[in-house]
Amino acid sequence: MGGKNMKLLLSMMTLLLILSIAAGCAVIGRGKDFRPIEENRLSQVTPGKTTASDVVSLFGPPTQIVKLSNGNAYIYDRSQSKATGFWFVIVTLANYDTQYDRIVFFINNNNLVTHYGSSFKSDAAAYGMPF
Amino acid sequence: MEAASNQTRQPTACPSNLGRLLIILLLMTLFSSGCVSFRVDRINDGAEVPPPAPELISGKTTLTDVLARYGAPTHIVDMQEAFALVYEKSFYRGGQISIGIPLSDIIKTSFNLEAAGNLTRRDRLTFIFANDGVLREKSFEKGTSQPLWNSFWK
Question: A29 at the B interface (CB within 8 A)?
Answer without folding.
Answer: no
